[in-house]
Amino acid sequence: MAGAAAERGQQRARSAAVRLLLPFLCAALLAFLLASVAFEITHGSHISFGAATNGSGSGAAAGRRGGGSQQQQQQQQGHGGADVSVVQRTMQTRVCGSPAVDGYAHVKPECLEASPTNKWWQEAKPKPDDLDIHIERHADYDGLAVAWGIGNTKKSVEECAEACRQHVPKGDSGPFSRMPCNAFAFCSEETCFEPDAHSHSKGDCWLKFTEAPASPEVNMRGRLSKAMQLRHPAAPVTVQWHSGVVLPRGVQLTNGSWSPRHDW
C-alpha cells in the first residue's frame, strides 16, 4: 500500500512538472519556427509578380532565387541607374502652384523651367524608350500646352500619347515650347466639352507639360459632377476626353488631385 501511494505521488509530481514546463516548451518551439521563417524570407526564394510597361504593352515578370528579380532591380534603379524612389518623389513635387488657379494668369515659365520635374528631364535627357505611357480614358488632365491641340489631329489616344513621348521641344513657338511633353489630352468624340472659350473636335491632341506628372491635376474624370452639369447644361454626362502622362520608367502614376478647372 505504501509503495502504491508513493508511486501515485511520483506520477502526480511528474504531471505537475510537465504542466509547468509545457508553456516554456511551446514558447521555445514558436520562437524556433519564427526564426526559421525569417531565415527563409531573408535567404530563401524571392518571387515577385508585376507588369513591365514599355508604353504600349505589358508583361509579367517572376523573380529568381537570390538577390531579387531583374524586374525588381530595374524598378529600384529606374532610368540611368537612379534610385526610382527619388525619381518618384521628384515626379510628385509641385513648386509653382496650380496653373489654373486664376485662369493661368499668374503662370511663370521661368518657375516651371526651374521646377524639379523639368530639371530632371533636362539632366536625365531620357530617350522615348526610357519613358512609360499611362492612359486614363474619360479623364482630362491639366497642363500647359507645349504643342497646341486644335488642328493637331491624331487617330487615337495611343497615337497622341506616342506623339507626347516622342516630342522634341522647339523653343520658338510659345512661352512653354522649351518644356518637354509629359501629359496629353485627346478628344475622342465629334466634339468634346471643355469649360473654356475654344471649340474642340475629334482627334485634337494636346501635348502638355505639367509639374508632378505622377500626381496630375485632374480637370474632369469619369461622370461629370452634378455641380458642373448645373453650371454647363449642355455638357455631356461622361467626360469625352482621354488623357494621360509620360513618366520615367519605374515611376508609378497616382490618383492625383482635382485642378481648379474642376470648379469652372
From TrEMBL:
Residues 55-83 are annotated as: Disordered. Residues 56-69 have a biased composition (Gly residues). Keywords: Membrane, Transmembrane, Transmembrane helix. The chain crosses the membrane at residues 20-39. PANTHER family: OS02G0761600 PROTEIN, TRANSMEMBRANE PROTEIN. This is Apple domain-containing protein. It comes from Chlorella sorokiniana (Freshwater green alga).
